[in-house]
Design goal:
The complex is a heterodimer of chains A (about 475) and B (about 450). Chain A is α/β, with parallel strands linked by helices. Chain A is built from 14 helices and 22 strands. Helix content of chain A is about 30%, strand content about 25%. In chain A, helix 1 runs parallel beside helix 9. The longest helix of chain B has 16 residues. In chain B, helix 8 packs parallel to helix 9 and helix 14 packs across helix 15. In chain B, strands 9, 12, 15, 16, 17, 18 and 19 form a seven-stranded mixed β-sheet that branches. In chain B, strands 1-8-6-3 form a four-stranded antiparallel β-sheet, with no helix packed on it. Classes of the chains: A alpha/beta (about 475), B alpha+beta (about 450).
């Protein structure tokens, strides 16, 4: 039995960042986490996936080595080795969070937590022993989400032939063929990895395009790039039946009114995540949920029950680590009673997909602007006209900026290309501070850089593009 | 000799004023002492009077515009006097004595003849822009002036247009680029808006809120209507601060912040006060007083006996007053103001009653003169008429106390083992602990109890 000011249920990006901020603000903090610190992001999501994508990127570069004057003979691609490296990176990151806990005097309550009253949490350790802890100020639910599979489409996860990202991250060799169901960020990233390591990849997506939530131009550009890399794309496709054998899966897919059969070694279900709300004691306390099954919160991350808070995936979409982190910070500052807490700006959260070429976006798409009948102007600049992109042979993609025609407010930005997941933050900073396209353009951009494409796109929006 | 019209400091705390309207038009003859404009200060709407005789030749800011104290806002001069140099220098504040003399160059310029045109044009309607008339009526002078190097051009129209814009040297409020662009397009002065962004930065939503609430002069004429309609779906209305609201906010947070305040509450039996009042009313209308008038008298009498409460905190000392000037908080449409009943302890009830009535009326009409709302030594806030039983009021610094008066209610009380009904009144005094200690305040309230429970003492 220990007493803390705050107890977090879950040590993922929302929980651990919130915990550190709480500790900085002078609170005593306990974090319940059964696996590694860092949660899904560090152990089973962002970090290991990006490590694999780095391997994939290198593999793609090596394939083009001769063109660059780098001739490597006898090149082999070993997904097993890539996975090993990826796990090591995850572990390293998790240890990093452990170090941060020690530094900030945060207690890791190792085990599975359950809220037993408005101010107590019981934690069951690996040895089955239960211990109760008291939270004087707040209990913060940051339990995250998990892969759910698509049972409604007949895709029950079996962990061998029908797998989720959890298994996909630790395959020791690339499957001969793989169908990836769902062409969101996760699906597109794994398609990139397996394609680079030699698998025959087919993406099956029910929407009309891959990355369906992104701007239509972005989806089209990535479609072109993926097709060039011989990734099969089945969009507007419905799965009619699934037959899982021992070493393969037969899918029957309806596309364009016709039914096509597909037999693959593995199916990766890259769609559907469910919030972790079961068995944590919130039901018993009567915590209100949203229609979509997430915990309902307000600006201060308060749930309907006083003293109980929720942040991160469990508190609703977008299920992104950086959204959870920000909620953790804001939660801590409100709890500490700080003045002028800047609330989470849910309209200015960047999206990033780390396949090659990368995709990044922020704000509204052209589709949304049209739906909302908001007048806009688009400024666009292709990387094929950017010097730095040419030097590295990465000329796919573009930067598109959507602008209010009267005042130059940046309504949205959409990018496809190398390193665009880094470049999007110029727009994030601009939007957060209400800079307009003019202020972006006035800032001198170094030459040659990919970021010049951002400046050129703003110029294009003002009708003054130089290099196109 | 031309007379410059400046935005004057019409109240002791005024830093800027809104020229709500010109009461004289350009071209009107004015005499020293004539009211030429109405100015909204931080406290009231005041009259601005002419400081010289002549013609109001130029209005340098439009009705509805805000200008810091000291800004040149108009020129009074003879009909034929060349005022170009004055008009050209407008916008710059701080009246420099040498600036009022016409530049040497224009001394040499023959004054524009009272224009034979002037007489022939006397049939021209008065409303015609006098600047225009000057220009057309004195072509010769124009040519000469234009020829003298460096002399201000007589393109008075354009120049005054520029002069109406804000003083470029005034500190610029923090704002986002997008907010600045919106504001300049919509004709909103950033200085008229309070920012809600990080560190009080003015951001887009602040401009939109200002537009939605009718915002500034220019917005009101054209663009505000659609903006208001667009925003009408919101759950709230953002209201920009008026001068008086700004001052209230600044002054009161100044108070609650650095002033270590504590509160003392007492409940008095004022049955005798009500009896006294009823008895007086029966004597005739001229003897009619309100309970509040009696409270003012009683508080003033008590203060005279407790100078430690009748004091100001001066920062480096405490100033106890020998005279008792009671500030009485009056609710007005967009705020409150505390007109002062001077020497209330020495005044009879009838005098207090009459004065309170007049002051309250003037306050509501915003006609109070600065000397009528400054100089109080202690304040009373009465919310009894709103059915408030008890509350705490915020000290009006540099005073060290304020009395919050609730409503008088019939209350069952046990007296000598018998249940009786008394008219009881709750008062709460806020005390600045730097000057007033608990016992000091309590003793004052004790005296007040004796007076209110035995109001005949007030007559003594």
């Amino acid at each position: 039995m220990a007493t803390f000011d705050v107890i977090f249920l879950g040590g993922g990006p929302a929980g651990y960042v919130g915990a550190i901020r709480c500790a900085q603000l002078g609170m005593s903090v306990g974090v319940v986490e059964r696996e590694g610190l860092g949660g899904t992001c560090v152990m089973w999501g962002c970090i290991p996936a990006k490590a694999l994508l780095a391997s994939a990127s290198l593999a793609e570069k090596v394939k083009k080595g001769a063109e660059f004057g780098v001739i490597a003979n006898d090149v082999k691609f070993d997904l097993g080795a890539a996975v090993k490296r990826s796990r090591a990176v995850s572990l390293q990151n998790s240890k990093g969070v452990e170090f941060l806990f020690k530094k900030n005097k945060i207690t890791w309550l190792k085990g599975t937590g359950k809220i037993t009253s408005k101010n107590t949490v019981s934690v069951k350790g690996e040895d089955g022993k239960e211990e109760k802890h008291e939270a004087k100020k707040a209990i913060c639910v940051s339990t995250g989400s998990r892969v759910r599979g698509l049972p409604q489409a007949g895709l029950e996860l079996n962990k061998t032939t029908i797998i989720s990202s959890d298994e996909a991250l630790i395959l020791d060799k690339a499957p001969k063929s793989i169908a990836i169901v769902g062409a969101g960020a996760v699906g597109c990233e794994f398609a990139d990895v397996y394609n680079a390591f030699g698998s025959e990849v087919t993406i099956v997506e029910v929407a009309k395009t891959i990355l369906p939530v992104e701007d239509a131009d972005v989806s089209a550009e990535l479609t072109r790039a993926f097709k060039k890399r011989k990734i099969n794309l089945m969009t507007d496709a419905k799965i009619k039946s699934v037959k899982a054998g021992k070493s393969s899966v037969k899918l029957s897919i309806e596309i364009n009114g016709k039914t096509e059969d597909l037999e693959v070694e593995k199916v990766l279900v890259a769609a559907g995540r469910a919030p972790n709300i079961e068995d944590i004691g919130i039901k018993e306390l009567g915590v209100q949920m949203t229609d979509r099954g997430f915990i309902k919160i307000n600006e201060k991350m308060e749930t309907s029950v006083k003293g109980i808070y929720a942040i991160g995936d469990v508190a609703g979409p977008p299920m992104l680590a950086h959204k959870g982190e920000r909620e953790g910070l804001v939660f801590a500052e409100f709890l500490a009673g700080k003045d002028h807490v800047h609330p989470v700006n849910y309209n200015n959260i960047p999206n990033a997909t780390y396949c090659h070429p990368e995709v990044a976006s922020i704000g509204m798409t052209e589709r949304e602007l049209k739906e909302k009948k908001i007048e806009y102007k688009a400024g666009k600049f292709p990387f094929s006209a950017n010097g730095r992109a040419r030097t590295s042979g990465e000329t796919e993609g573009f930067v598109k900026i959507l602008v209010d025609p009267k005042y130059g407010e940046i309504l949205g930005a959409h990018m496809v290309g190398a390193s665009v997941t880094e470049m999007i933050h110029e727009i994030a900073v601009a939007r957060e501070n209400e800079y307009t396209v003019e202020e972006i353009e006035l800032a001198i951009h170094a030459h040659p850089t990919l970021s010049e494409a951002v400046a050129e796109a703003t110029l294009d929006a003002m009708g003054r593009v130089i290099h196109a | 000799m031309a007379t410059k019209v400046f935005m004057e400091a019409l109240s002791p705390t005024m830093e800027e004023g809104v020229l709500t309207q010109w009461t004289k038009n350009e071209g009107d003859a004015v005499k020293s002492g004539d009211v030429i404009a109405e100015i909204e200060t931080d406290k009231a709407i005041m009259e601005l009077v002419a400081r010289g005789d002549g013609i109001l030749r130029k209005q340098l800011i439009a009705g509805g515009a805000t200008a810091p104290v000291g800004t040149l806002i108009g020129v009074i001069a003879a009909a034929d006097e060349n005022i170009d140099s004055l008009v050209g220098g407008a916008g710059a504040s701080a009246p420099k004595p040498e600036a009022s003399a016409p530049p040497a160059g224009s001394n040499a310029t023959p004054a524009a003849p009272p224009a034979s045109g002037a007489s022939t044009e006397s049939a021209v309607p008065k409303s015609e822009d006098p600047a225009h008339a000057t220009e057309t009526g004195s072509k010769g002078a124009t040519a000469i002036t234009a020829g003298s190097a460096g002399a201000p051009q007589p393109g008075a129209k354009e120049e005054t247009g520029a002069a109406t814009s804000q003083d470029p040297n005034a500190p610029r409020p923090k704002s986002s680029p997008l907010a600045r662009r919106l504001a300049s397009d919509q004709g909103i002065e950033l200085s008229s808006i309070d920012g809600s962004g990080p560190g009080g930065r003015i951001i887009k939503r602040d401009i939109e809120a200002a537009l939605a609430s009718g915002g500034t002069a220019k917005a009101a004429t054209g663009t505000s209507a659609p903006a208001r309609a667009a925003a009408s779906g919101a759950d709230y209305v953002d209201i920009p601060l008026t001068q008086i609201r700004k001052t209230i906010a600044r002054r009161l947070s100044e108070s609650i912040g650095p002033i270590p305040t504590f509160y003392l509450t007492a409940e008095y039996d004022i049955s005798k006060v009500t009896e006294l009042r009823t008895a007086m009313t029966e004597l005739g209308d001229e003897f009619k007083v309100s309970v509040n008038d009696i409270i003012i008298k009683a508080v003033a009498t008590a203060l005279a006996k407790h100078p430690e409460v009748n004091a100001h905190w001066t920062g480096d000392g405490i100033r106890q007053f020998n005279r008792v000037h009671i500030g009485m908080a009056v609710a007005i449409d967009d705020g409150l103001i505390t007109p002062v009943i001077f020497d209330a302890d020495r005044k009879g009830l009838s005098e207090i009653s009459a004065e309170a009535k007049v002051l309250a009326k003037k306050a509501r009409e915003r006609k109070l003169k600065p000397e009528e709302f400054t100089g109080s030594t202690f304040s009373i806030s009465n919310l009894g008429m709103f059915g408030i039983d008890q509350f705490t009021a915020i000290i009006n610094p540099p005073e060290v106390g304020i009395l919050a008066v609730g409503s008088a209610t019939d209350t069952p009380v046990v007296v000598n083992g018998e249940l009786t009904i008394q008219k009881r009144l709750r008062v709460t005094m806020s005390c600045d602990h730097r000057a007033v200690d608990g016992a000091t305040g309590a003793k004052f309230l004790q005296t007040l109890r004796r007076l209110l429970e035995n109001p005949l003492m007030l007559i003594y």
